[in-house]
């Protein structure tokens, strides 16, 4: 596999775990520590237990709005170094059970090669189309 296909597979596995609400599966795909950059601020999550708690809190809020699943229109990957890459997710749509959109964002994930496996390290929510401006 190439770095690009490895990273796209990592994002695919993360989306699958996300949509299945598989918290251990999601958490296992991240480095320790991990960082989330979101509109409300930056969260530095020192370990997988903290990330797990953050994800459960996030899902409780989403499900209060009838969240069903997330779809991603496109993923592009750019190598940064031999051990780092950036995945840009375009049109990340969180959908309700009736098919209407809760929201649409773009996202950036910084991925790190750690012990021979690619992992997510930094997750950043972005305004749609941010990189086209």
UniProtKB/TrEMBL annotation:
InterPro entries named in the record: NTF2-like_dom_sf (IPR032710), SnoaL-like (IPR037401)
SUPFAM superfamilies membership: NTF2-like (SSF54427)
Source superkingdom: Bacteria
Gene3D superfamilies from the UniProt entry: 3.10.450.50
Segments forming domain SnoaL-like: 11-118
Name listed for the protein in its UniProt record: Nuclear transport factor 2 family protein
Organism of provenance: Roseobacter ponti
